[in-house]
From TrEMBL:
Residues 1-139, 149-283 form the UspA domain. Belongs to the universal stress protein A family. The lineage of its organism: Bacteria, Bacillati, Actinomycetota, Actinomycetes, Streptosporangiales. This is Nucleotide-binding universal stress protein, UspA family. Transmembrane segments: none annotated. Gene3D superfamilies: HUPs (3.40.50.620). InterPro entries: Rossmann-like_a/b/a_fold, Universal_stress_UspA, UspA. It comes from Streptosporangium canum.
Length: 289
């Protein structure tokens, strides 16, 4: 990690909300803030399709967006180091590159201009599933403080990375941590009443193991108050519900479910659409992409 928070901006309301979140996070971590505007190449940038003045106009627009963003960040978090950079290329690829040297990459859920066409799910799948580190997706400006960080935990390597990030966020904010462990019953369960006792025993065993694993994390972070919700059900509704009273909800980019081989798991993908607060999608940095 570089001690640097990177945020993508394009002048849209969601990007402005992401900028404010990133500035706050940089201040909490005593980190630098890098503001990036990605300008996708147009046909007019190439010799046979040159449109006089178009490239200069686009460059000037990005410069204005960056200048305004830097000024806003300075007002939001006085004292942090702020740098700006205008880069040309495919949005997803350039943001993935930025994540390689960033502590965290922060994005708005929907953009305009350079981010046109990248709706919520596309950002999550295109960037969060491939980024080298944590990606925070911000839908709208923060309206209030709940003093709680929610995190989904399933014991996978991605779940462990998510839990580490969530503990760090809770400590920096002096907030409590809400750990959600949702055990989803097998698909045949609804048609197998004869297995009810076995399913209950399995759930109880899963619950005990989850609590035992969390004891190690509690010992590692004794200064962070923790509450646990261990339930039987799909994790997306459970985490979406937890996000109603959270300042941030954190998930691994993929977990132990049936979609374990996907770059962006069904839980993180589903949560990006349904959460009521910013979502951090975390993957282990040492993992080969």
């Amino acid at each position: 990690m570089s001690g640097q928070i990177v945020v993508g901006v394009d002048g849209s309301p969601a990007a402005t909300a992401a900028l404010e979140w990133a500035a706050d996070d940089a201040a909490r971590k005593s980190a630098a803030l890098k503001i990036v505007c990605v300008r996708e190449p147009w046909a007019g940038d190439f010799p046979f399709h040159a449109a006089p003045g178009l490239s200069d106009a686009l460059r000037e627009h990005c410069d204005e967006v960056l200048a305004e963003a830097a000024a806003r960040a300075g007002r939001r978090a006085p004292g942090i180091d702020v740098a700006t950079d205008q880069v040309i290329g495919a949005v997803v690829e350039r943001l993935k590159s930025e994540s390689e040297t960033a502590d965290t990459l922060v994005l708005g859920s929907r953009g305009s201009g350079g981010f046109a066409g990248l709706v919520l799910g596309s950002v999550g799948m295109g960037v969060a599933g491939h980024a080298a580190g944590p990606v925070v997706i911000v839908r709208q400006a923060v309206q209030g403080v709940h003093g709680e960080i929610a995190v989904g935990y399933d014991g996978s390597a991605h779940g462990e990375a998510a839990l580490e990030y969530a503990f760090e966020q809770a400590r920096l904010r002096d907030a409590r941590l809400h750990v959600v462990h949702a055990w989803q019953t097998p698909a045949f369960a609804s048609r197998a009443a004869t297995y009810a006792d076995l399913l209950q025993e399995t759930f109880e065993s899963e619950s005990r193991m989850a609590r035992q694993r969390l004891l190690l994390w509690r010992d590692k972070h004794p200064d962070v108050p923790v509450r646990e919700s261990i339930l039987c059900g799909h994790p997306v509704p459970a985490l979406a519900d937890a996000s109603r009273t959270a300042d941030l909800v954190v998930v691994g980019s993929r977990g132990l479910g049936a979609f374990g081989s996907a770059l962006l798991g069904s839980v993180s993908h589903g949560l990006l659409h349904r959460a009521h607060c910013p979502v951090a999608v975390v993957r282990p940095r040492k993992e080969t992409r």
